[in-house]
Design a protein that fits this description.
homodimer; about 425 residues; mainly alpha; three-stranded antiparallel beta sheet; globular; Glycosyl_transferase_4 (chains A, B); UDP-N-acetylglucosamine-dolichyl-phosphate N-acetylglucosaminephosphotransferase activity (chains A, B); transferase (chains A, B); GPT (chains A, B); UDP-N-acetylglucosamine--dolichyl-phosphate N-acetylglucosaminephosphotransferase (chains A, B)
Chain lengths: ~425, ~425
């Protein structure tokens, strides 16, 4: 309500676009989003959530004082799922009006490649997540709860990250600045972090160090900050296929949930269990709201998620790992992202030339993708296992992500007792 | 770094605009912002801050344990001032590239009315504010500090409000939705609020109520939520002149600072003084970053602030008032906004027709503004006191704001003892 003529929604009428060549959508107002792929989401969520729900409700005897808030949180997350499902078509109309759209490069040369796909819909997911996470406090925490400090710091960090991600999507911040943004967003969490700052020295190394537990103090906080920066950026650069950004997030989120419930089930230490419950409170809403957007983002994508989503998802999982005190485990869940980061290092560091996009080459005739020489996991996978369609490649990479998580559980199982 | 061709920065080249009629700026890249009006800012900040600094440093004997963090916060705010001053020209180029600009309606018909003015620069102020407020924790709070809960909740609320304000600026949310956004943003604060929920019954009314202190419990929280919604929206609708949005904010912020330091000076209760110091920690960075943007936003505006700024400023002051426990005083500082709200009610409620903009009428020949029949303080002031230039009207309204704050101090002085 300020003293100016807004140009946002009237851009089209004031600056008429040249006649569209082949674009399917003429204007934002007669725009209709493809319906959500609920069948796919049903299959994916059954695969991902069934083990977690089984462990929580039947396998372990989680006492009701802890189970009640987890189930309330799950209920709120379910509401968040449906709200996100309803909100995305509305938000898609708004972002299109602001000319926030992209063309799908992996479909260039086909009619689908000329469709304007609404961009940065992660903002809808982020806002619903925040509202669910905030309202949940009402049901769980009393005002003098010790957890409230860390919970609010977590919310401040995640919210700041969403804000910076959305600013990046809108204003297109240079990527070297972008890499640094998570370190600002992680500050509230670091300041409020009151948990342990010790690491347990692996047993085979105890004789070399001379102690079993090492208190890192402020250095531990630096480690936390680096972890948050890594998680956030690593989701952002392992991307480029329809559904891959959200797909990897929901797979890792499912692994986090299973890990948390296993730890809760195996322990009797109240504080330890609280830390893992805390992690669940953040991961369940992430899972639910992400699945809702995946219904629109699965191949062929009707909406794009934007950096808003990738940085939000990365930061939320980092926070869940830090406050649940299982950051080493989290890093093994992130194995494909670590691989992708290592493969990307030469280009990120500027040793090898880095183009604007590092995507595979799409052949419109066959509809298959071929790996290029750019150092990403997507390209290397294609170079090793041959040409694939976008959808099948995405599924392969998600299965690989799930295998990395399974490997992590195996590793924990076999090393338990010997390693720590 | 995702699978699409970004359209943000390439819009101009892909969809060539029709030849600009008389626009002064051809493209975002050869854009140069008018230099900041540092002389004006020097005068305004001397007028506003001198009393506060005198009271803090000389008049009252504030003990060093409280003075030290206040001065550290002031130092950080000063750094924030210079960072904002440097950041705004950069951010202005970025928002212009995204076609986020407006034309100054109060200059329509003059060459200045055809200049594209970068919009929503409040985002730069908001981000610098958040970083200053976050870094400050490092110098003040220990990890087990009781204040940390409320401070982080305050940060989460303000951050969420900036996010929603920026989303509104970018996507142009319908105004009825907009009115509700602050109630979501205020939730983290309400959840974490651990302060008193009692009100002191005014002495003349004690005999009617039969008690001196009334505990409102949850109703008090509802009152806090309504206060935040009111402050946020009332700054947003008392706008429309170059410099008015920031001007009113810095005047009120100065009053808040003076009030806080007077309360600290007059009391010996540690918790009471802490609450007011807390309020200072939020208000000083708001003051400093706002003054930096005012250097660009003062008449004639080189940048516009956007809803991002107005909602951020309103929410920050509401939070400062709530956590400093002086919400009634805050409402008297907001007297012009209350008047403007009451004048606007018929149009906001839909009883009287409400146009898109409710601005005075500008006469390009004389350069003067004439009041229209729309119910805003700006129009009513012009109808009562006659036609004025935009700059002089803004100064008049800011003086009126300062008088309202002075009136509040007088009222407190005379009613003290009798009323409460």
């Amino acid at each position: 309500m300020t003293a100016r003529k807004r140009t946002s929604s009237v851009t089209n009428s004031e600056n008429p676009l040249p006649p569209p060549k082949k674009t399917t959508i003429a204007s934002a107002d007669d725009f209709h989003l493809a319906p959500p792929k609920l069948g796919v989401i049903f299959v994916i969520s059954s695969l991902l959530c069934s083990l977690y729900l089984y462990l929580l409700c039947f396998h372990y005897n989680v006492d009701s004082e802890l189970k009640r808030p987890i189930l309330i949180n799950a209920g709120l997350s379910l509401v968040g799922f449906f709200v996100t499902l309803k909100l995305i078509p509305v938000a898609a109309r708004y972002v299109l009006r602001r000319n926030m759209f992209g063309f799908d490069i992996n479909k260039r040369g086909t009619p689908q490649g000329d469709v304007k796909v609404p961009e940065s819909l992660g903002i809808a997911v982020g806002i619903v997540f925040l509202i669910v996470a905030i309202i949940f406090q009402f049901f769980n925490f009393t005002e003098d709860s010790l957890w409230l400090v860390e919970y609010n710091a977590a919310l401040a960090s995640i919210c700041f990250m969403i804000l910076l991600g959305f600013v990046d999507d809108v204003l297109d911040v240079p990527w070297r600045v972008k890499l640094l943004l998570p370190s600002f967003a992680t500050l509230p969490l670091l300041m409020a972090y009151a948990g342990h700052t010790t690491i347990v020295i692996p047993k085979p190394l105890v004789s070399y160090f001379g102690l079993e537990i090492l208190d890192l103090g402020r250095i531990y906080k630096l480690y936390m900050a680096l972890l948050a920066v890594f998680c956030t950026n690593s989701i952002n650069i392992h991307a480029g296929l329809n559904g891959l950004e959200i797909g990897q997030t929901v797979v890792i989120a499912a692994a986090i949930l299973v890990h948390n419930v296993m730890q809760i089930g195996a322990s009797v230490d109240t504080e330890f269990r609280q830390a893992h419950a805390f992690s669940i409170y953040l991961t369940q809403p992430l899972m639910a709201t992400s699945l809702a957007m995946l219904a629109y983002n699965w191949y062929p994508s009707a909406v794009f998620v934007g950096d808003t989503y990738t940085v939000f998802a990365g930061m939320t999982m980092a926070v869940a790992g830090i406050l649940g005190h299982f950051s080493e485990t989290l890093l093994i869940f992130f194995l494909p992202q670590v691989l992708n980061f290592l493969l990307s290092l030469p280009q990120l560091a500027g040793i090898v030339k880095c183009p604007r996009h590092r995507l595979p080459k799409f052949d419109p005739a066959t509809g298959l993708l071929t790996g290029t020489k750019d150092g990403t996991l997507v390209n290397v996978y294609l170079r090793i296992f041959g040409r694939k369609s976008e959808k099948s490649l995405c599924i392969h990479l998600l299965v690989f992500q799930a295998l990395a998580c399974a490997f992590c559980f195996l590793l924990r199982h076999f090393l338990a007792g010997w390693y720590k």
